[in-house]
Design brief:
Layout lengths: L13 H24 L3 H9 L2 H12 L8 H40 L7
Length: 118
Amino acid sequence: MMFGYGDEWWLLLFYPVLLWVPFGPFLMAATGVWCARRPGPWPWLWTVLLPLVPVGVSATAMLLPRGQPTRTDDLVGYLLVYVLGITVLPWVLGYGITRLVRAVRARRGRRGPGGGEA
């Protein structure tokens, strides 16, 4: 028996879901920057593993109630906000901005110290 309830232990799975809303975008942006800076399998693996529990648990909670009619608008809203807005978009922004900055710096470095072409 936990917190006065006998069979509600599965609610502990929702703590990562609640923490993912404020901190998830920052973590995903950081992994996007990490993937852009360091080649190799570890950044890409962590990009998938990091949001696995919060997004998986919340997706299960969205899809699990089988006795109710299909709520297509709720599922589309969940995918747009929670999956794309909180998880994918920050990663894409972190990765894209880092790649863009590196490309601009590389082009400036090729022009030489004067900065202009003669």
